[in-house]
Design goal:
CATH class: Alpha Beta
CATH topology: UDP-N-acetylmuramoyl-L-alanine:D-glutamate ligase
Distance between the termini: 37 Å
Shape: globular
Strand order of the largest sheet: 5-4-1-8-9-10-11-12-13
Radius of gyration: 18 Å
Number of domains: 1
Strand content: 25-35%
Number of helices: 9
Number of strands: 13
Structural class: alpha/beta
CATH superfamily: Ribokinase
Order of helices and strands: EEEHEHEEEEHEHHEHHEEEHH
Length: 284
């Protein structure tokens, strides 16, 4: 299975700190600048596991865009970057243990043209992953809905956008746009916003009536999933000294890789937990 991942690409600066500090205080941190973005991270993990992945996003016509291209070429990722007149996206993250605070300027990402997906010439056995961050505006919602409709012969996947985006877009409009999605990733907060339920089993009941495979990510607790054949809670091993940045993306990449290898939903979730743990563990 070849996987095309569509979403934002960012120049991402992460500050790793021991713990969050109060406003106005000063603390020591370790700074890391890298190329980031939800869909890119999924494509990376899928690629590193041995699966053929493609990545599509938008950038500006600036030095940041040139730097991103060089970095992706070094990783030997296959990608297509649409050039726009907006600046390349930037995200600044503060990672304190398992807590993360993000400040984002989407820039060029808001201009991504999904009609260009036809140029990838996807085959029926290929899969198409959409980052929920694409739904930050009405144009993005409409484009995703149309793209899902046009690629109904492919396995289509979405990772739900944050609660703030869901509130802005509206849950009903979001669900309407996602009609036809076959693998639906979300987390507890997002699932609660969508379903108006407080118990995981109730959330799964609502979502699996709409989507063939549903995975609710629960961070350090693992995940819960439901599909047409099974329902399961899959715990993960507790980790110490971790930076949870990218954990959910690593999980998605691992899950999709295992699914493409013919594993069941539960087996894919178990494998995905291991992949996420390997990505986020920090040895001291």
């Amino acid at each position: 299975m070849r996987l095309l991942c569509v979403g934002d690409v960012m120049v991402e600066t992460v500050v790793h700190v021991a713990e969050n500090v109060n406003s106005g205080d000063e603390a020591q941190g370790v700074f890391e600048t890298r190329v980031g973005g939800q869909a890119l991270n999924v494509a990376r993990v899928f690629h590193r596991l041995g699966g053929p992945s493609l990545f599509y996003a938008a950038v500006g016509q600036d030095e940041s865009a040139d730097w991103i291209k060089r970095q992706l070429k070094q990783e030997r990722l296959k990608f297509k970057l649409q050039k726009t007149d907006q600046p390349t996206g930037v995200v600044f993250s503060i990672a304190a243990s398992q807590d993360r605070t993000m400040y984002t300027q989407r820039g060029a990402n808001a201009m991504l043209d999904l009609t260009e997906l036809k140029k990838f010439n996807l085959k029926p056995e290929d899969a198409l992953y959409f980052s929920g961050y694409l739904m930050n505006n009405a144009q993005g919602v409409g484009q995703i809905q149309k793209a899902i409709e046009q690629h109904n012969r492919n396995l289509t996947i979405i990772d739900t956008p944050p609660v703030g985006v869901l509130e802005k877009v509206g849950v009903d409009r979001f669900l309407q746009a996602c009609a036809g999605i076959q693998v639906f990733f979300t987390n507890l907060a997002e699932a609660a916003e969508i379903t108006r339920k407080t118990k995981v089993d109730d959330m799964l009941d609502v979502l699996v009536n709409r989507f063939p495979t549903v995975i609710i990510k629960q961070g350090a607790k693992g995940c819960s999933l439901a599909d047409q054949n099974e329902r399961a809670t899959v715990p993960t091993q507790p980790l110490k000294n971790i930076d949870a940045t990218g954990a959910g993306d690593a999980f998605c990449g691992g899950f999709l890789y295992a699914l493409g290898q013919g594993q069941s939903g539960k087996a894919a979730a178990q494998y995905a937990n291991e992949v996420a743990a390997n990505v986020i563990s920090r040895e001291t």
